[in-house]
Design brief:
Helices cover 43% and strands 16% of the residues. The chain has 395 residues and is α/β, with parallel strands linked by helices. Helix 3 (51-67) packs parallel to helix 5, helix 6 (139-149) packs across helix 9 and helix 8 runs parallel beside helix 9 (225-238).
């Protein structure tokens, strides 16, 4: 790998111990994947934030980095934490867990990382431009930024993203390069898609089929950014899809040649089979929406669904603190709380300790959540669209 004089100096310790150690990590990563140089990044999103995910070793690592004066050089956001950082006590999060989680957030803050704990940074003030190089970690955010925005990032691990933030650089390989962004197969959608959950079911099915390849979708027709968010998140969870193209919807689709590629049809039958496969429970103890974090449009949709109703079971919609503040101003939060629900910020069901909070069956409307909950949170899953989920906890 070619390194500039400045970069060689960083490795030799001219900027201190932490930058040298982090730069060696990036060089090793670049060597593994055949990168020939480092490139600057405009922003970073760091995963490995919830205490549930990183435990004591991760907490101690971050505190050590902060104590040694590590500071980030570019705009850096965080993935969701393991709890609502302000209302954790009211919502019933365990106190011992909360104490550890707050230590983690304090360490990140000392490194000048913005502690907007969200998996949708593009909805909370970190919106990259088309073709901008970034270094993001969270799988759904990587998919959205690559696919819907047209920025360029590989799926970084927690340490490599933190290294990129401290150095403002990342190795030039993978999806940073034009040649590696071409589609591998065509997904011919013949199914009717209405709800976010339908797009999640489509994504889950396609992710299982294509693994870590790049799909090109035809036949979707119209879809908003929430639909595309749900689609990409599910593919990233069930497979390892970091980039997809959708005809007429995503910015690079018209640049792609799909002649001669394998075609995989998806009909209503595959969507129905996916719903059946992901449903492992029948009666939810709690309904949790917002995986990835909900947009203001999704919060508004829940407020409309529950207005004037009385919920018999807890209903959470997880979102960023920024979106919750907007929901507060619009009165959506009040509407949801009057029905007995909560707008929960900073966390989601996958990285929070819901299994310690008395929940065994969780209702979700996302393919990503339905994929992860059985393994990460020991939950049975009720996977339905938002209308059906609200009906189940109000009747």
């Amino acid at each position: 790998m070619y390194l500039t004089n400045e970069e060689e100096g960083i490795i030799e310790g001219e900027q201190g111990e932490v930058p040298a150690r982090m730069f060696r990590l990036l060089v090793r990563l670049g060597d593994i994947y055949g990168a020939d140089r480092m490139i600057p990044v405009g922003s970073v999103q760091v995963a490995g934030v919830s205490y549930k995910s990183i435990g004591d070793p991760g907490t101690e690592f971050l505190e050590d980095m902060a104590a040694k004066g590590a500071k980030v050089k570019v705009l850096t956001y965080l993935n969701p934490a393991g709890m609502d950082l302000e209302d954790w006590k009211t919502l019933g999060f365990p106190e011992d867990f909360a104490a550890k989680q707050l230590r983690i957030m304090d360490a990140f803050k000392k490194m000048d990382i913005i502690i907007t704990a969200t998996c949708t940074p593009y909805l909370a003030g970190n919106l990259p431009r088309f073709r901008e190089h970034i270094a993001w970690s969270e799988s759904s955010a990587v998919s959205f930024s690559n696919s819907v925005i047209g920025a360029r990032t590989n799926r970084e691990g927690g340490p490599s993203a933190l290294a990129a933030a401290i150095l403002g650089r990342t190795p030039d390989y993978g999806l940073h390069i034009d040649e590696n962004r071409k589609p591998d197969m065509v997904i011919e959608v013949e199914a009717g898609l209405e709800y976010n959950a339908d797009f999640g079911a489509l994504g889950y099915y396609v992710g299982k089929q294509v693994k870590n390849k790049i799909p090109y979708f035809t036949g979707i027709g119209d879809a908003n950014t929430d639909h595309l968010k749900a689609l990409g998140a599910a593919m990233a969870a069930s497979g390892a899809v970091a980039l997809y193209h959708a005809e007429g919807l995503t910015p690079e689709a018209h640049l792609m040649d799909t002649q001669g590629l394998e075609v995989i049809p998806v009909t209503d039958n595959e969507i129905k089979e996916t719903y059946a496969k992901l449903n492992t429970g029948t009666d939810p103890d709690i309904v949790i929406l917002g995986c990835p974090h909900a947009s203001l449009r999704e919060i508004a949709a829940l407020a409309k669904e529950v207005e004037g109703k009385s919920l018999k079971k807890p209903v959470w919609i997880c979102t960023s603190r920024v979106m919750k503040e907007a929901a507060n101003r619009m009165g959506f939060t009040d509407t949801i709380e009057r029905a007995g629900g909560n707008v929960v910020a900073d966390t989601c069901m996958v990285v929070s300790p819901i299994e310690r909070m008395g929940f065994e069956t969780t209702g979700v409307n996302t393919g990503k959540g339905a994929n992860y909950l059985p393994g990460f949170c020991r939950q049975n899953v009720v996977f339905r669209n938002i209308h059906e989920l609200v009906r189940r906890v109000t009747e």
